[in-house]
Amino acid sequence: MATEIGHFIGGQTVASKSGNTSPIYNPTTGEIQAACALASKTEVESAISAAEKAFPEWSSANPQRRARVMFKFKELVEKDMDNLARMLSSEHGKTLPDARGDVQRGLEVVEFACGIPHLQKGEYTESAGGGIDVYSMRQPLGVVAGITPFNFPAMIPMWMFGVAIACGNTFINKPSEKDPSVPMRLAELMMEAGAPEGVLNVVNGDKLAVDTLIEDPRVKALSFVGSSDIANYIYAEGARHGKRVQAFGGAKNHMIILPDADMDNVVNQLIGSAYGSAGERCMATPVAVPVGEGTAERLIEKLVPRVQTLKIGPSMSEDSDLGPLVSGPHRDRVKAYIDMAIEEGQELIVDGREFSLQGYEDGFFMGGTLLDHAKPEHRSYQEEIFGPVLQIVRAENFEEAIQLPSKHQYGNGVAIFTRNGSAAREFAQRVNVGMVGINVPIPVPVAYHTFGGWKRSGFGDTNQHGPEGVKFWTKVKTITQRWPEDVQGSEFVIPTMD
Fold first, then answer.
1. Which of 211, 225, 133, 125 shows the shortest CA–CA distance to 175?
2. Partner of 236 at 20 to 30 A CA spacing, among 153, 264, 313, 398?
3. pLDDT over 60 (residue 443)
4. Is there a contact between 32 and 3 (Cβ–Cβ < 8 Å)?
């Protein structure tokens, strides 16, 4: 009988009583290695109650104390890095170096949150009017929640709860049921770091758990990362229930390659960004846009042998380029998109559909796939594939290259490779995408800036981490004060600062 992973509520691991579970696979072998409990409505409500109980003490703690907990949490995660990476790789399928990167990128936001005494300061204006001072303060919202995806089970939870908890909120994480072990371990480490019971809770579950978080009035804000259809649903339903919501969806990131680009550098960067983590990243680069036929031919000439020789291995590998996909159904979905692309008229240059790793024939592996002559009207180009598949869309000129990502339904990230500073500057100004890389293939901003896409890649007007994260997880209270020595009658007009 497979081990069942329950929940983390009120400072301790608790077994689920719902009786419903979802299998957790080892993507390398294809075997079921554990079961993830799917919470009942009552179990989700108990996590909300635990967070609600913890909120008064935690929110009233001075910011230095909260910062010290975050510093200690960072230290504990760093000490546990190898264990977390192995746990992550065994459930997700990404290689160990990539898993460590997942944890590290999350820790960088925790590092940012350690500065919360400075980040949460308000504003003050002395003598805004006759004897009147005006000041503001940023206060936590209360019980808040994050619904996090399978592809970054360490990074994205820490992006959310790192800032939210440092600001004085109490948090409920509903991770993906495909790989819940790392979020559970992070909650244990947060308690070990000194956070009171109930400050960070983890509830495993499915749509029932999500809907309970959306509908319960005690939950004041929701952050989500996942597919665009679900992001749209959570944004609309959360707003309908009076919550603050940020919901990040899918992506179809483009790399624009101008004729003057260093093609060896382009290929080095494109291989990693397109095929790393088996393409299961919202900031992957699944579309290459060479400008001009000559650029396209030079790109393909150098790219094909690199795709053909990608090193694919078990998820616990230290030296593989990529591991398996997260599940069998997801692998089959990716293969179906390749079939679709061929039917649409795209040229299959490298086919990874039949790849099998010796000794791991039942694992969820795919080889790298390369397709040429994708067109804007092709459905396989319009939609997110989320696998080790790179499509080439040839652009005749610079203007067409700008319009391809600008008109796409997704607007998460885009990159341009060139030696021309003027062209790069114009591209960055004009392109209709939320994050832009100039000779940088995966333009994920550093933790003290902010992350967020446009169009169907992001719903809501506040981004993740950085100053925008502090803004999202707090509310502003503004105080106008006067200490008169002698009150002189009543005023019947609106106050002004004359």
1. 225
2. 153
3. yes
4. no
* Edge-to-edge strands, sheet with 413-417: 347-350, 369-372, 389-392, 287-290, 254-257, 413-417, 435-438
- For 218, the domain range is 3-249+457-479
Summarised one tens digit per residue, pLDDT across range 413-422 is 999 999 999 9
- Residues with catalytic annotation? 282
Instruction: Give the residue among 159, 138, 141, 140 at the shortest CA–CA distance from 224.
Output: 159
Q: How many CB atoms within 10 Å of residue 450?
A: 20
310 and 434 share one domain: yes
Q: Cα–Cα distances in Å, from 407 out to 225, 256, 344, 403, 454?
A: 22, 14, 20, 6, 11
The residue among 390, 316, 408 whose CA lies nearest residue 352 is 390
Segment 446-484, tens digit of pLDDT: 999 999 999 999 999 899 999 999 999 999 999 999 987
301-345, pLDDT tens digit by residue? Answer: 999 999 999 999 999 989 999 999 999 999 999 999 999 999 999
Q: What is the pTM of this model?
A: 0.94
CA distances for 313 relative to 9, 24, 270, angstroms: 37, 20, 20
Could you identify the residue written with the tokens 């398996």?
324
- Answer whether residue 221 is part of any domain: yes
Same domain, 333 and 374: yes
